[in-house]
Amino acid sequence: MRSIIMIIDSRYKVVKELGSGVWATVFKVKDTRTKKTFALKLFQKLDTRSLYEKFSAEDMHHITKIQHPNLIHVSDYGNFGKHIYYVSEYYEGKTLRNFKFRKTSLELLYDIIVQVCYALNALHSQNIIHKDLKLDNIAYLLKDNKIDVKVMDYGFTKIDLERSKQKVSEILPYIAPEIYLNNEAVPESDFYSLGVILYKLTTGTLPFSIEKITGFMAGNKIDIFPQFPRELNPDIPKDLERLILSLLGRNPEDRFRSVEEIISFINRTQLKKYPFSRKWSIVHNIKFSDYIVREDYSHQLLDYMPMISRGNGKIIALTAGTGLGINNVLTLFRYHILSGKYYLFDYRCSEIHKDPFFSLIKEFQFAVKNNKKLASDLVQISTKFQKFLYESEKIAADIDENEEELTLDFQTAFNFIVHLSEEKPIVFIIRGAQNLTKEAIDFINYISQEIVDIPILIILGFNNPEKLGNIIHAVQVKIEPLNLEQTEKYVYALLKENPDEKFLQGLWVRSYGNPMFIEQILIDLTQKKIIWKDQKFTFDYNLESYELPKEIIDSIYDRMTHLSKENYRYLQKLSSLFTPLSKNLIKYILKITDKELFFLLKDCIN
């Protein structure tokens, strides 16, 4: 398989294989769309059904939301046939297996420990236990005697641990006793793994032999206490030995209870002081937790899948204002259908990239081997289309088409989509659909009546609903702001706290139920120590006098750029009122007609 794969998922060109494990192989790849380099982990020894049993679409989405300087960021998931993969940043560093401990490298070792702890704190704040922390899952880069550390492969060990017995010598020694005794993993389980890593780095050996571990697993009465590290290497300072042994406690309650405790111990026992801010952790916890937004809309899109599989195509126009989570909805929806049953194409439309259907054909023209229909579809195409397929989108953008060439390309693209869908249904997600060209919108309308008999789902994501009026025969789904009850649940997910009713009501009113605004307000209030005092949350603040962050104000003004000058002046006049507004009252205050009121409201709703 390794020698055959050249392009993964019609997009990622394999540069080289980086390594192989129990379930998966890791490749260095180049994204043919963006020309960027990534690491790609393909679970080719596990089919999608088995993976979904252990790792949900929500889990995938959660992982992609976590960004921390000491974690390898996982940016996306996809499927290659019946196998799921994930794409992460490509890091040039070495693994800790290459790190050599010496007396002179003691400070570097403490730097490693603390940076690993920072990474674990980010994971634990999201209720994620690594469970597979080992030398090969920690990378570092040393430059100018400064070290940068990255933890990788988090969130997937519920898969790998099931086959640990097949690679006992590599995996089992790092696993905390409570896990291999089938008890629940806890944050302290990762601290145990860190202890094993430090024991191995400083002594050159593992704290327990495989025989002792397997005997303990079998229920034999064995003394599970390691040899003192300094007996094996006298260069290990006493305080470092104490740290290692405290991490290796037999039971979770025998170990350090938090990252904060570990760093505090290090700061007490050596000269260099390492920062740890609970406020910083809280702020980042808020940022990481917004992945839960709008699951209901993702599931609503899933309801169309049986219909598509039966050959009844649909165009869905999904609309939302800025901050209402439209991209989260689309991403979570896609992660639910990584089964290999569909051709999935997720396209981000922008001011530069505006030809989603040409892009789909470019990416999938070689997707089906020996398909003469697809090849014949591309025999007669315009010069613009040829330039796009075989040279670049930039060159093609400078070429104008006449009506005859446009009609030819419309028919060619339609035929290609029809023939591709004969292999399996197509799910085509177009984000930023407000940037679509007139020609792209005309093509969507051109095929809109025909696709009812074709297994294809086209989802258009609009952040600017004004453009929606140009699309015909589309099912409209509008993402609404959160109501008060939804806001309460969302705030709890962000803070792991329940504010009082008055604060919650004020937050809902000031944010208008916009999840992005809620997140930004809570981060601002935390950073300014308005609701974060004495290492805890207090919600006695009156939000009526609160000045919104600049980012929110800019977003609101940006949202109003489509308004005419006259309607903008009308809204300025109405904004000074503190009373519920009826249509008749608006007409009376602004002295406008029913027709003018209709267009004002239409402009404002969009």
Write a structural description:
By secondary structure, the protein is of the alpha/beta class. It has 5 domains: 7-90, Phosphorylase Kinase, domain 1; 95-286, Transferase(Phosphotransferase), domain 1, CATH 1.10.510; 293-478, P-loop containing nucleotide triphosphate hydrolases (Rossmann fold), CATH 3.40.50; 484-556; 563-605. The strands form 4 sheets. A 6-stranded antiparallel beta sheet has the order 1-2-3-4-6-5. A hairpin with a 2-residue loop joins strand 8 (138-143) and strand 9. The two termini are 51 Å apart. The model is unreliable at 159-164 (pLDDT under 50).
> The CATH topology of the largest domain, please?
Transferase(Phosphotransferase), domain 1
Summed over residues and divided by their number, the pLDDT gives a mean of 89
Choose one word for the global shape: globular
- Rg on CA atoms, Å: 28 Å
- Helical coverage, percent range: 40-55%
- Segments where pLDDT lies below 50 for 5+ residues? 159-164
Give the number of DSSP strands: 16
* Main β sheet profile: 6 strands, antiparallel
Q: Can you list the strand order of the major beta sheet?
A: 1-2-3-4-6-5
User: What is the number of helical segments per DSSP (H or I, 4+ residues)?
Assistant: 28
Structural class: alpha/beta
What is the number of independent domains? 5
Draw up the topology in text:
Layout: E1 7-8, E2 12-20, E3 25-31, E4 37-42, H1 48-54, H2 57-65, E5 74-80, E6 83-89, E7 94-95, H3 106-124, E8 138-143, E9 146-151, H4 157-160, H5 168-171, H6 177-180, H7 187-203, H8 210-217, H9 229-232, H10 238-247, H11 259-269, H12 278-288, H13 295-302, H14 305-309, E10 314-319, H15 326-335, E11 343-348, H16 356-364, H17 372-377, H18 383-390, H19 393-397, H20 403-421, E12 426-431, H21 438-448, E13 456-462, E14 475-478, H22 484-495, H23 501-511, H24 515-527, E15 532-533, E16 536-537, H25 550-559, H26 565-574, H27 583-590, H28 594-605
Parallel strand pairs: 10-13, 10-14, 11-12, 12-13
Antiparallel strand pairs: 1-2, 2-3, 3-4, 4-6, 5-6, 7-8, 8-9, 15-16
Helix pairs in contact: 2-15, 3-7, 3-11, 7-10, 12-24, 13-15, 16-18, 16-20
